[in-house]
Design brief:
By secondary structure, this protein is mainly α. It has one domain: Alpha Horseshoe (Serine Threonine Protein Phosphatase 5, Tetratricopeptide repeat). Helix 2 packs antiparallel against helix 3, helix 3 packs parallel to helix 5 and helix 4 runs antiparallel to helix 5.
């Protein structure tokens, strides 16, 4: 499906999720970044990108992804996502 619709945000995101499920965190990180290139306001991507970065021991990058996501969650008035992102930030900064 992605070959037929390479610009589809959800399909790109779903592929990244599949990579995570297979333990392919580098590929997942690249795919999440591609998803954000297509739509920088796709909020679910920031938390998942941070998680992938943490698996790759890239704590600084993970923290940045979480913070960018938190800013977007505030903008979108999405309190559930904001709470999840803030908890991830808190855990990394602790």
């Amino acid at each position: 499906m992605l070959k037929e619709e390479p610009q589809d945000v959800f399909l790109n995101y779903a592929l990244a999720v599949e990579f995570v499920g297979e333990g392919k965190y580098e590929e997942a990180e690249k795919q999440y970044l591609k998803t954000l290139e297509l739509n920088k306001e796709y909020l679910p991507c920031y938390y998942q990108l941070g998680q992938a970065a943490e698996k790759l021991k890239k704590e600084k990058e993970a923290l940045e992804y979480y913070k960018r996501g938190a800013d977007l969650a505030k903008k979108q008035n999405n309190n559930k996502a904001l709470n999840e992102l803030n908890e991830a930030i808190w855990l990394l900064e602790d």
